[in-house]
Amino acid sequence: MRYCILVIGDGMYRRIRDLREDRDLTQRQVARYLNCSQQVYSNYELGQRDIPTQILIALAKFHGTSVDYLLGLTNIPKCCCKI
What is the span of the domain harbouring residue 67? Predict the structure, then answer.
């Protein structure tokens, strides 16, 4: 039996930054949506702070993508489900 071990690396943090920048948003704007400080959000993008599940879900909804895309489990950015 073969197992696949997923290692979440810098890719997730790069993705949330790239999604924000693609929409010409500031960290402060996204932080306001998430109800956190700009510094906390900055730490998420830099990988200096773990991103809680509820924040990942909120980011996926905000950007119209899936949590799987944010985590790097798929390279398909658009969510095909209704949230």
Answer: 10-71
